Amino acid sequence: MEKKFIGAGLLSGLIAGIVAFIFARLFIEPQVAKAIDYEGGRSEAEEALEAAAHGGHVHGEGGELFTRSIQENVGAGIGTVVFAVCMGAFFAVAFTILWAYVGRRYPATDPRTVAAALGAIGFVALFGVPFFAYPANPPAVGDDDTIGARSGAFLTITLLSVAFAVAAVVLALWLRPRIGGLLSGVAATVGYLVAVTITVALLPEFHEVPGPVTDGAGQIVFPGFPGDVIGDFRVYAIAGQVILWTVLTVVFALILGRLSRPPASAPAADDERIVAGNS
Amino acid sequence: MTASTHTTAKARSLAVPDLSVAGAAVWLSLTVLLAALAYYFLGYDQGAVSVFGSDTHVHEFVHDARHFLGFPCH
Ligand SMILES: [Zn+2]
């Protein structure tokens, strides 16, 4: 059974990735293009200033490895789909383990309810919490010198958020027979939120939105990064992940529905049925 | 995932491993491992660290996706 779940996760991820990429290509990519235009204009202004100050020194950036067209269409598409397939794989493994417990302990549970809960947990733990700690930024927002520190902090909050979410689910399942489903869910959620809040408070902060470029006299020669581009970019980034996780969860639940239905020609004693909880 | 349903009359000298559980564990572990590897290469490799020296081809290729997905970038 676990192979069928993994296959379902990979297929759900593939479909979710394609849908999320179509959304991203239409709504997020224009914000990326605006940010790259800003970046180009800014470095020109800085080079002109530097040339005036140091007598014609211009630092040339190396040629791009891939054209913008390749990056925004092929690279972004493959990257988004690979990400979604990874999420689908994690989803399938988490579902298999969770269902192995819940399905045996509470046989009346609809596996699609478990999948829906898992989709919500995955969205919050793998995207929501890391995003609220370190919001997504368009190109040009972010200091090259801190990329190592920012990557490390982002990976740390992502891994800890997932670990806390796993602990919260274990806690909820352990408390459920003792204090009931609702209270155990609330207790686990509060515990998770307290743990991630403390973690985020302990991690470093980064405020790297480029301010205006000024010349020696303090005159603004190039404006700061446009705030509306950052705002739009972040709203669309959240929307893109909502779409990705929703499609992933819905497709996975639909496949579960098909797996649950015994084949019409199969004998009555079909121990491969998902409702039996076997794997 | 299920406990073995086979019961033997006599105790065996060596425990028979339940391969269906072991098989499931292998499949699940392998899936997590491969997905984690792909996730790492997509979101982190060649940002701060690079497994294959200071090459940035993977980073540049999936650059826009990294921004879409909220990974730290430039
Ligand atoms: Zn970037």
UniProtKB/TrEMBL annotation, chain A:
Pfam families: CbtA (PF09490). The keyword Lipid biosynthesis does not apply. Keywords: Membrane, Transmembrane, Transmembrane helix. InterPro entries: CbtA_put. It comes from the Bacteria. The chain crosses the membrane at residues 7-28, 74-102, 114-133, 153-175, 182-203, 235-256. This is Cobalt transporter subunit CbtA. It comes from Gordonia insulae.
TrEMBL record, chain B:
Pfam families: CbtB. This is Cobalt transporter subunit (CbtB). Keywords: Membrane, Transmembrane, Transmembrane helix. The chain crosses the membrane at residues 20-42. InterPro entries: CbtB_put. It comes from the Bacteria.
